[in-house]
Write a structure and sequence with these properties.
heterodimer; A: 615 residues; alpha+beta; Beta-Lactamase; Heat Shock Protein 90; 3 domains; five-stranded antiparallel β-sheet; 18% strand; rod-shaped; disordered C terminus; B: Rossmann fold; 11 helices; 12 strands; 17% strand
Chain lengths: 615, 325
């Protein structure tokens, strides 16, 4: 169970991983949920509408069928009344039951009955046969002297037997072929009652009225059950009394589901049956008076003419809702994922080191808001950590520099003082004075200013003092020329930049030269930068040496201030694009270009400010 | 964004497809179809043909078809019928329904029409010498004859003499019924003395029966193989006052036949279902025009009606189905 759970969870994760963005995943999920909901809604409402229509139709048809039932009841009642009228007719009983001696009297009764039958048949075209019968010798059928069918045994007729059994009540037969009238075979419904012999009080005669289907057909066709809908009538036994397609039914070319109709009752008076013509709604109503069941058949297709319109309306509504829902969910999922995307963009910026624009604006108070906050805090912290790191590096360099500055002095001092002693012993007073004053200048400059940055003027002076001392020491081998534009002298430069380079030029370039070596210092403004050149005509460097010029181990032996140290400091203060550029040809001397910004007041200020802060 | 548009579009497609699938199962309305029916005759005194045509009309009405009926004046006039067949084919109906008079004489023209006009042919009641029809709707005449023969055995003893009054020689129905009847009689078959023909005419049937009874005074059973033959023979027997001596097993339903059945001259009649025949014939033609496959032979049914059975509810429905109410 646990494993299964894990598995499904794993699978689910995979499913969402298939999408490239959360937005798409959300949109897809939303659309699936919306479709499912709409489909369910659509099915339920269509189903419900259909049910409602069927219910309405059932109500409507059952009302119609009840109406037909009532009409047929009253029609049969009317015919019963006619039959009642005839049973009490004295002419009838006189003619049938009284043995007349006078043929004229008998003929009179006969004519009166014929007259009455004639009137009735003319008034009611739905009366097919009307007749009274006592025996094969004494009967009157219709008004046109119809004869009895001699081949028929009257007493074996089903409706005749039933009438005799019904004890004076009117008997209503089902549909049958009336064969008692000679040479006439018609499908009729027979209404019959017994006639009482007034002399014996026995029921010895019978009166019958055969009804053709014209009236019943009219009553059944009078109601509107759609173009194809129809009404038919069943008797108590489930036999068909009337059907508009009677011939088809009798020929077994069509059938009606009579078993199902017979199971219907007053509360449940309808059902739906489907055949090749479509679904048919059967509604039944049983008459207590006749015992007949009137069945209305309506075609659902005709009843539900507007069902299609309803369907289209529902589907269009569903589509409309779906579109709106999709637009809204698109908007919503975008709104939800927007902060995540902002966060992602910021992270990308952080990855590229762009901390300045990485901060996420705080918008939401939810999880993503918290995430953004944490991200902002983290970014700020990283930023300050990096700044701190840079500062620490700088301080480290500075302290290193300071240590170096203080280191160079004693060895150089000793050499210089040694030179002075030597010169004093040689009584070269002028030289002693010059050297001592240069040394004094050098010392004063190095101790007087704690600032990292000094004016170029000072740096040049310092270098000049150094060069003066060195020139006096190596009288025949070193010469120097300083030719710096006046306009650059007031700009600042990182302290102790030029002197170590000059020292380098002397110890690595000129020292190994056999003849006089010259150090030239130049300086000018080029655009926004200041370029100071220190060139010597010493032994120079090959390209291999030039390549490793910034390596750490390459140190000036006397000062201990490496080229790379100078380069680092310059770049630390001014930025990557500033620093040293070496140009050297073997046996042809070396030139160092020192490139610093001409506009360095600000940098100076920043520097001093930061230094103050650190203190 | 592109992806979401795709999703929305595909979802819409699904919805539209679902709708079309949902609405696709509504049946097509049958187009206006023209069918021509050529019966053997349209004699209003002949209940068989009037009922058959009623059935045809009923079927046309049910399906709302255009049905035209051309019929020869007399049931034996195959030449006129052939002319009518040609005339009908020239009108290019969607289907042609024919009840051929002659087994042999109409084969050629029907074959021609089938080849040249490509009109589906449905035969009703009778067949032609070659099986070129798309479908045949008729009674199973052989089985009906056989059942009649088997029933007739009840009225046969060792001394019985039997005669057959058939309708038209060489008609498919006459051949099938007579063969069936002889088969149904079994060993009594040899008691058949003669087969005579009425040529589907009451008077001829009457005359040949009188002639038969004159020649064979001890005749005890006559089989009438269609309405004209049976009723004509029945009337002859009745008129000669031989009602109790000669029994007739009849074929086909009519008021006259029913009266003879009531009178006991006919102990039974074998009825066909002409209404069904006409109805199913037009139905088959309609189905063919709708491109549906139909059976090669459609049995319209026969039923043996005895005197005792005729006024039961089922008997009434079978026997009097042709009556309009």
């Amino acid at each position: 169970m646990k494993k299964l759970h894990f598995f499904s969870k794993h699978k689910q994760t995979n499913y969402f991983h298939n999408f490239k963005s959360i937005h798409t995943a959300m949109l897809f999920s939303f659309s699936m949920i919306i479709i499912a909901a709409l489909m369910i809604f659509l099915l339920i409402s269509l189903n419900y509408t259909r049910k409602a229509i069927i219910q309405n139709s059932t109500g409507y048809t059952s009302q119609l069928v009840k109406q037909v039932n009532a009409d047929i009841d009253s029609y049969i009642q009317y015919m019963r009344n006619i039959s009642m009228m005839l049973t009490t007719n004295t002419d009838v009983s006189e003619y049938l039951f009284t043995a007349h001696t006078d043929p004229a009297e008998e003929q009179m009764h006969h004519d009166a009955i014929i007259e009455q039958f004639h009137t009735l048949c003319l008034a009611r075209p739905d009366i097919c046969n009307i007749g009274i019968y006592r025996s094969n010798e004494r009967y009157i059928f219709n008004y046109n002297n119809s004869k009895i069918n001699e081949n028929i045994n009257f007493s074996l007729l089903d409706w005749y037997q039933k009438t005799l059994q019904s004890q004076g009540a009117t008997y209503l037969s089902s549909s049958h072929v009336q064969n008692i009238v000679d040479n006439s075979y018609n499908w009729v419904i027979t209404l019959s009652s017994t006639l009482k012999n007034p002399h014996t009080s026995a029921r010895e005669g019978i009166l019958f009225i055969d009804l053709n289907y014209s009236s019943i057909r009219n009553l059944c066709e009078n109601i509107n059950l759609g173009k194809k809908g129809y009404v038919f009538i069943l008797d108590k036994n489930g036999d068909i009394v009337y059907h508009p397609k009677q011939q088809l039914i009798y020929s077994n070319l069509e059938t009606e589901c009579i078993d199902e109709i017979q199971q219907l009752n007053e509360n449940n008076n309808s059902f739906i049956d489907s055949d090749s013509d479509g679904k048919k709604l059967y509604t039944a109503s049983t008459s207590k008076q006749t015992g007949w069941t009137i069945v209305g058949v309506a075609y659902l297709q005709e009843l539900n003419l507007n069902e299609k319109q309803t369907q289209i309306l529902y589907i269009l509504t569903a589509l409309f809702l779906f579109f709106n829902a999709m637009i809204i969910s698109n908007f919503l999922s975008k709104a939800i994922t927007q902060p995540i995307r902002t966060l992602q963009n910021s992270m990308n910026k952080v990855e590229k080191g762009d901390f300045e624009q990485a901060l996420v604006p705080e918008t939401a108070k939810n999880e993503i808001g918290a995430l953004s906050n944490s991200f902002n805090l983290m970014t700020l912290q990283i930023q300050s950590l990096i700044a701190q790191n840079i500062e620490e590096q700088r301080l480290k360099r500075k302290s290193e520099l300071k240590a170096l500055q203080s280191q160079i002095k004693p060895h150089f001092l000793y050499n210089t003082l040694d030179s002075i002693i030597w010169m004093a012993e040689a009584e070269a007073n002028k030289d002693v004075v010059l050297m001592t004053s240069s040394l004094a200048k050098l010392l004063r400059q190095s101790i007087s200013n704690d600032n990292e940055l000094v004016p170029i003027r000072g740096e040049i002076e310092y270098t000049k003092s150094y060069l003066t001392i060195q020139q006096m020491r190596y009288k025949d081998t070193l010469d120097f020329k300083i030719n710096v534009d006046n306009e650059i002298l007031d700009y600042t430069i990182v302290k102790l930049t030029l002197q170590p380079l000059v020292e380098n030029a002397i110890y690595h370039g000129i020292k190994f030269k056999e003849h006089m070596g010259t150090v030239r210092i130049g300086g000018s403004i080029m655009g926004e930068d200041i370029i100071i050149t220190i060139s010597d005509n010493g032994i120079g460097m090959n390209s291999e040496q030039l390549k490793h010029i910034f390596d750490n181990k390459h140190k000036s032996s006397s000062s201990g201030v490496g080229i790379n140290n100078i380069q680092e400091r310059l770049q630390l203060y001014y930025g990557e694009r500033y620093g040293l550029i070496f140009e050297s040809y073997e046996n042809n001397g070396t030139t160092v270009y020192v490139r610093i910004p001409a506009n360095n007041t600000e940098t100076f200020n920043l520097y001093t400010k930061e230094e103050n802060n650190n203190e | 964004m592109n992806k979401s548009i795709k999703i929305i579009l595909s979802v819409c497609c699904i919805c539209i497809c679902t709708y079309f699938i949902y609405t696709a199962n509504i049946p097509k309305k049958p187009s206006e179809v023209t069918i021509i029916y050529i019966p053997k005759s349209q004699d209003i005194t002949n209940d068989f043909w009037t009922t058959l045509i009623d059935g045809a009309n009923m079927s046309a009405q049910e399906h709302n078809l255009n049905l035209t009926i051309f019929s020869p004046e007399h049931e034996a006039d195959y030449e006129e019928q052939n002319k009518l067949i040609k005339k009908a084919a020239d009108m290019k109906p969607d289907a042609l329904v024919i009840s051929p008079i002659s087994y042999t004489e109409s084969t050629e023209i029907i074959k021609e029409i089938k080849q040249d006009y490509h009109i589906p042919i449905i035969l009703v009641d009778a067949i032609i010498s070659e099986h070129i029809e798309d479908s045949l709707v008729s009674s199973d005449n052989y089985s009906a004859g056989k059942a009649m023969g088997e029933f007739a055995k009840n009225y046969i003893d060792d001394n019985s003499k039997i005669a057959i009054v058939s309708h038209v020689p060489n008609t498919s129905t006459a051949i099938a019924r007579e063969t069936g009847f002889r088969e149904g009689l079994g060993e009594h078959e040899k008691k058949i003395l003669e087969t005579v023909y009425s040529y589907s005419d009451f008077e001829t049937a009457y005359d040949v029966t009188i002639d038969l009874l004159t020649r064979y005074p001890d005749l005890s059973l006559i089989a009438g193989l269609n309405e004209y033959s049976a009723v004509g023979a029945g009337n002859a027997v009745k008129d000669l006052g031989l009602t109790n001596k000669v029994k007739i097993v009849g074929f086909d339903n009519s008021i006259s036949a029913i009266r003879l059945l009531e009178e006991g001259i006919f102990p039974c009649i074998m009825i066909q279902k002409p209404f069904n025949m006409g109805y199913l014939g037009i139905e088959a033609a309609y189905q063919i025009t709708q491109g549906k496959k139909i059976e090669k032979f459609i049995d319209s049914g026969t039923e043996l009606i005895t005197r005792e059975y005729m006024y039961t509810r089922e008997g009434q429905q079978s026997l009097f189905a042709f009556l309009k109410n």
